[in-house]
Amino acid sequence: MRGVVFKGDRVVEIQDFDDPAPGRDEVVLEIKASGMCGSDLHFYRAPAGQALAAFGLTGDDAGIIGGHEPCGVVAAVGADVDPRAVRVGDRMMVHHYDGCGFCDQCRTGWPQLCERGNVIYGATAHGGHADFLKVPARTLVPLPDELSFAAGAAISCGTGTAFGALRRLRVDAGDSIAVFGQGPVGQSAVQLAAAMGARVIAVDIERARVERATEFGAADTVDSSTADPVEAIRELTGGKGVTKALDCSGAPPARAAAVKSAAKWGTVAFVGEGSNVTLDVSPDLIRKQLTVLGSYTFSLVGQADCARFVAAHGVEVDRVFTDRWRLDDAVKAYEAFDRQTGGKAVIEF
Predict the structure, then answer these.
(1) Do residues 157 and 297 lie in contact, with contact meaning Cβ atoms separated by under 8 Å?
(2) Residue 23: which of 106, 137, 142 has the closest Cα?
(3) Residue 178 CB-density burial (10 A; 0-12 exposed, 13-18 middle, 19+ buried)
(4) What does the pLDDT read at residue 342?
(5) Under the phi-then-psi rule, with left for phi > 0, alpha for psi from -120 to 50, and beta for the rest, what region is 63?
(6) Is 8 left (phi over 0), alpha (psi -120 to 50) or beta?
């Protein structure tokens, strides 16, 4: 089979690998769609041999197939896999983490928080930028028939991350929510929050992304390159601020603005990784009775919940993909993705 390997220094290679065979508790997935995530660029841009370190991980990344947003069809199952749960031909996503399977975090569906360490498919183990992917059966999440494989790839990381944060924020139809950062995660958050009935205000520094946010369901938009987003949001909300705010950018000014734009008794979530934020604790937090939380991707159950929500509400999450590529075009795909002038990309088979 073919697989895409990040060599570092903006070099990608399509290499040949042996076709995988499942172990007793494993499955082999024939990949149909594999999303390209912004975090892949850490591996793509890192100095040769230092990709994992650049992403805050340890280990040997030599020869690892990239891609942590896999979706496809079960091609083979191991002898111990329960046929009531997984069968050849099933449409499946992959929860791209695996852990020990025994600690409290793993048992509750959070292997990325495993107390004994974890595997990240596409980072520390082979990922989905390949014809086939071998994973433990317990990592599979069913893809509803109503959804495309590209939608499944979106849910497997960016869209699922947005859904997980909105669930932690407890967003409902009584809320107003400001979504800072209109990259793929922010776009998904706008779509999902609108489907939950909330009034959505989308914020970004790029005009094109701001303009597109209305297509994803934003009731109002703020171009923070030309306007103070906190003042704009207060004006849009009659001076009160939003009941919920979500930062998907990871940029310190956006994080601070998310907090400052929240109303009294509001809740703010951060999903954008890296960097930091400086706040004036008394007026920004204490005197507003504000709740601030961090949200890290999603659980196995959360990924399944997201897929069912998307299917039930007809949310077109695969619209976040502006570029679609074939595996043979992976070198060109990452060259284009690295320029960050478009939106999200997906490799389709």
Answers:
(1) yes
(2) 137
(3) buried
(4) 72
(5) left
(6) left
CATH number at residue 259: 3.40.50.720
Question: CA 132 to CA 16: how far, in whole Å?
Answer: 12
* Angle (nearest 5°) at CA 249 between 222 and 227: 25
Query: What's the pLDDT score for residue 278?
Result: 95
Q: Contact, 141 vs 303, CB < 8 A?
A: yes
Q: What is the mean pLDDT of the chain?
A: 95
| Whether residues 16 and 138 fall in one domain | yes
Cα gap 296→9, rounded to integer Å: 28
Q: Which residue has the tokens 């001076």?
A: 239
Query: How, if at all, do strands 119-120 and 26-36 pair?
Result: unpaired
Q: How far apart (Å, rounded) are the C-alpha atoms in residues 269 and 34?
A: 27
Boundary-marking domain end, from 294, 313, 337:
294
* Residue 37 structural domain: 2-157+298-348
How far apart, in whole angstroms, are the C-alpha atoms of residue 314 and residue 211? Answer: 22
pLDDT tens for 27-51 read 999 999 999 998 898 889 988 877 6
Same domain, 274 and 317: no
